[in-house]
Amino acid sequence: MTQREDLLDFPGAEALQAAGRVEPPTPQAVAQALAAVHATARQETAQRSVVVPLGRRPFAHGRRILATVVAAAAVAAGVVAYSATDDRQADGHPAHQAQAVSVATFLDHTADVAYARPAASARYWKVRTKVSQTGAKPAPATDYYYARSMDAVYVVAGGQTHTKPGTFGWRLGSKELHSWSDLDRLSTDPTQLLALMNSSKEYAGQSAFLQAGALLGDTPAGPKLRAGLYRALARLHGVKLVGTVKDSAGRTGTELVFNGVASTDHMVIDPKTSALLETSSVGTKGRDRGNTTRITYVSVGPADKIG
Fold it and tell me: Which of 18-27, 97-106, 136-145 has the lowest mean pLDDT?
């Protein structure tokens, strides 16, 4: 084994090498990472005797410290680990694999998954959500059915179906989208999508993050558009990758975060399916400071009938 192979002989080294180049960390991030490294080194030194047991390579201890250094540096540089469960073990259970990636790498991978998903051909688009707010009693799950013409929305709550006629749709920058066809006519180029969503001067960046989340969570956006939205987020300055988390429904996903003008906004994405599992916003100013609004997408997809 060469010296380089010996240095990189720890779990996750291959994934870290495969993550590629990322932007250099800020001085504050480096300082935090070094502090964590020094603390770990002191702890390991205190726990071990200076006598090296017979047969143990003297460098083994140093390699564990180096692994900590590499991991801390990766976190400081914006590279974090998220778990994927695409592969299966021999017993059929999912094999969790830690992958060290940058936010752009994760989102580009998610875009590839989204692009490969089938397009919806059903009569309705069904969205089941649960909404919760700080200080309010959690609302039960509600089903929304969007017809292709968008001339009505059918809401199923508490076992009752309510029809709301009118003009419904979604907003993307300066564009109003009032039908499935309007979604299909949108550009799928990530640069053009980002420019469109970033049209707000005051909330630039944050508006793009929130609008992309709304389209990914609520709408019957086709595979190409969904892929374009994820690639646009990959190019959005300020998006950070938190890593693997559980949403409020207990599902495993990967969390993104954006620190906006008046709130900190989050997305939880399933990297296996590219589905948006949950969004949340935490107020950071004024009376809304500390208040959280959360939308959990319990299930989203095509439906041939209501109910």
Answer: 18-27
Looking at the structure of the chain, the number of domains it has is: 2
Distance of CA 103 to the CA centre of its chain: 9
- Is residue 74 located within the same domain as residue 108? no
Q: Is residue 120 part of a domain?
A: yes
Least confident window among 34-48, 50-64, 144-158, 191-205: 50-64
Please measure the distance between the N-terminal and C-terminal CA atoms of the chain and give it in whole angstroms: 63
Find residue 266's DSSP bridge partners.
Answer: 257, 280
pLDDT, residue 188, reads 97
Residue with tokens 């469109």: 196
71-85 pLDDT tens trace: 444 444 455 656 554
Structure tokens at 119: 């397009």
Number of residues in the chain = 307
Cα gap 212→210, rounded to integer Å: 5
Cβ neighbors of 158 (< 8 A, separation 6 or more) are 140
Please indicate, yes or no, whether residues 139 and 45 belong to a single structural domain of this protein.
no
Please provide residue 147's backbone torsions phi and psi, each rounded to the nearest 5 degrees: -80, 160
| Strand 252-259, strand 142-147: pairing | unpaired
pLDDT (0 to 100) of residue 84: 53
Q: Are residues 184 and 59 both part of a single domain?
A: no
Angle (CA) 54-58-63 rounded to 5° is 135
pLDDT value of residue 293: 96
| Domain housing 251 | 103-303
